[in-house]
């Protein structure tokens, strides 16, 4: 395959040691970049939101990894658009990685009409599978947020305030990576990694070399620049 890994990253599980500016900055204009929306863990922190990352390709936020507390606000500060996302990738179901997901989805059908792909891990005896987790949140009959029932296909009048989700569940015990996105030159794979007793996924992003060129043009208007290689 004429394909080369130009960037990869793995879900951060605890706390990053590097400092972060309290104000999120826009990554619009950079060719390929990761923006840390939140690097905090579960502890209360006056300077950091909990975990969340955005992968920008050109001027579009294409991949969102995790949505911990405070990340909803950071997403807005970053000027990211829900309509640009190719996938939301959830690493695991600890609250500091997923608690702002309902906030992101509330009234999301105003910003996006096409279904939003979203993926998370399988379950075990201490955590539900990602699909069960979403059902417990958004089921129009029994969910905690029945008003978000449309995210799972609910049709009740009160269940029409969130974009339809295209839910994927990855077996976190599988030995080989699973492809969760392969579109428009971007491939995302998921692989189970250790994190205590809770099923957890790391995500890897690969981008087609065809999307970059030496002069900054490229078929998506992207510029090549030095980035980490895996
Ligand atoms: Zn965790």
Shape: globular
Main structural class? alpha/beta
CATH architectural name: 4-Layer Sandwich
Q: Could you state the CATH homologous superfamily?
A: Ribonuclease Z/Hydroxyacylglutathione hydrolase-like
- The percentage of residues in β strands lies in 25-35%
- Ligands in the structure? zinc ion
Q: What level of helicity do the residues show? A: 10-25%
Major sheet = 6 strands, mixed
How many individual β-strands? 11
Terminal-residue CA separation: 17 Å
The level-1 CATH class:
Alpha Beta
Unreliable runs: 1-23, 213-230
CATH fold-level label: Metallo-beta-lactamase, Chain A
What is the tally of helical segments? 4
Q: From the alpha-carbon coordinates, what is the Rg to the nearest angstrom?
A: 17 Å
Could you say how many structural domains there are in total? 1
Task: Kindly list the characteristics that best describe this protein.
about 230 residues; alpha/beta; Metallo-beta-lactamase, Chain A; six-stranded mixed sheet; three-stranded antiparallel sheet; 4 helices; globular; disordered N terminus; disordered C terminus; binds zinc ion
